[in-house]
Amino acid sequence: MKFELNQYHKNISKEDLIEDLRKVAEKLDKSYISRSEYEKNGKYSGTPYISNFGSWLVACEIAGLKTTRRKEDFLRITNEDLLKDILSVSRQLNTKSISTKDYREHGRYTVQTILSRFSTWSEALAKAGLEQTSFKIITDKDLFNEIERMWIQKGKQPTTTDIKNGLSQYSLNTYSRRFGGWRAALLAFVEYINNDEDHANTVQEETIQANKSNKEQKLFEDGKEDITSRRKTSRDINLRLRFRVMQRDNFKCCACGASPANDQSVVLHVDHIVPWSKGGETVIDNLQTLCSKCNLGKSDME
Ligand SMILES: [Zn+2]
User: Fold this and answer.
1) CA of 143 relative to ligand 1 center, distance in Å
2) Are residues 221 and 273 in the same domain?
């Protein structure tokens, strides 16, 4: 391996990242490579991959690598491997406790695999000798976020069986205690998605965000006219809107039809049809569901 100072790669394009990831996979003759394998053999560190693609798995997926492990691979992973990896993420982040979110971003296995072995995240942390993150209060929004994630993953309403199988990062008990049962949790979620009551609140939040991104927006604009001043919506797509768009699109990519329900490696995004930078608003009619592959292809053309 060549010795290079990674931090000088300030302007690495997504294409460079994907190309080098493919190159390393080819060199090692592997259909999947972990972040640490890549870092030992690749040109860059793992960090730009996370910042550009959101997670290591998404980067692998876009590079056309296998992101779902075969059953044999899964069975070969020992509990010890999982605990070691949890510890290595905590060392990497220099914290005594890590959240499932941290692990999703930096770990080499899926959170689901860990939960299927240790039943709860707290237990996995305890076995790894780390501190608990459970002091953090789980809000209703956290639970709704997780229901949304599972719903998108399945392409339909998640069931108690899914939760028992480890699809949720929270236990069935957590939902039941909060809402009085799984069905009640789903009803509360649907109500939340359909509720526009806190619209005033959202608008206020959106205005603040719109102002924040004003500067960024100006970079896009050549002319004198400031598009953001006429804007009614923020660039950010909130959970409600995202879910409604995906539901309308049947949890499938509008361009290629891929869905996480059929292929676990598919990651869906909600994307502006008329780009926000070109004056497109964040409203349901200007939004569409795209898989990460089609979404990347699209930004290439812009
Ligand atoms: Zn697609």
Assistant:
1) 28
2) yes
Between the CA of 184 and the centroid of ligand 1 the distance, in Å, is 33
Answer yes or no: is pLDDT of 235 > 80.
yes
Residue 267 lies in a domain: yes
Distance (angstroms) between ligand 1 centre and the Cα of 190 equals 26
64 SS3 class: coil
CB-count burial class (<10 Å; 0-12, 13-18, 19+) for 171: middle
265 lies in the same domain as 222: yes
Rounded to the nearest angstrom, the distance between the alpha carbon of 258 and the centre of ligand 1 is 6
Q: Which of 172, 108, 170 is nearest to 145 (CA)?
A: 170
For the segment 94-136, what is each residue's pLDDT rounded down to a tens digit?
Answer: 888 888 888 888 888 888 888 888 878 888 998 998 877 655 6
Overall pTM surpassing 0.85 (yes/no): no
Q: Output the domain CATH number for residue 270.
A: 1.10.30
Residue 204 lies in a domain: no
Domain of residue 75 covers 71-127
